[in-house]
Write a structure and sequence with these properties.
107 residues, alpha/beta, Rossmann fold, 2 domains, four-stranded parallel sheet, 38% helix
């Protein structure tokens, strides 16, 4: 059964571990190499990647993912990310919901 992995920094890793998620800690310098190793291992169905480590993980792994269906690469905002032009988390969530379901809801 394919597993889920979160590729993130040490500060964020603790929260994911507390939630019971498998985590691979890395730095921005080693993140791309670690992600490529994870892809080649074939052990994971979903890999969530901290965008603070790799800005566009999907584009960065196009070559490694060629001919593969798994893992699905899921970019996730980093802990220090600004959520909108003004840094508004509500606006960020509103945009996520709008893109997922096609219309606005009041949060």
């Amino acid at each position: 059964m394919p597993r889920m992995l979160v590729l993130t920094d040490g500060e964020t890793a603790t929260g994911f571990r507390l939630a019971g998620v498998e985590v691979l800690e890395t730095t921005a310098d080693g993140a791309l190499g670690e992600l490529q190793n994870v892809i080649e291992s074939g052990n994971y169905g979903l890999v969530a990647v901290d965008e603070g480590l790799i800005a566009d993980p999907i584009k960065a792994t196009e070559r490694a993912m060629r001919g593969r269906d798994l893992p699905v690469i899921l970019p996730m905002p980093s802990l220090g990310a600004t959520f909108g032009e003004e840094g508004d988390a509500t606006e960020y969530m509103k945009n996520l919901v709008r893109s997922a379901i096609g219309f606005d809801i009041k949060l």
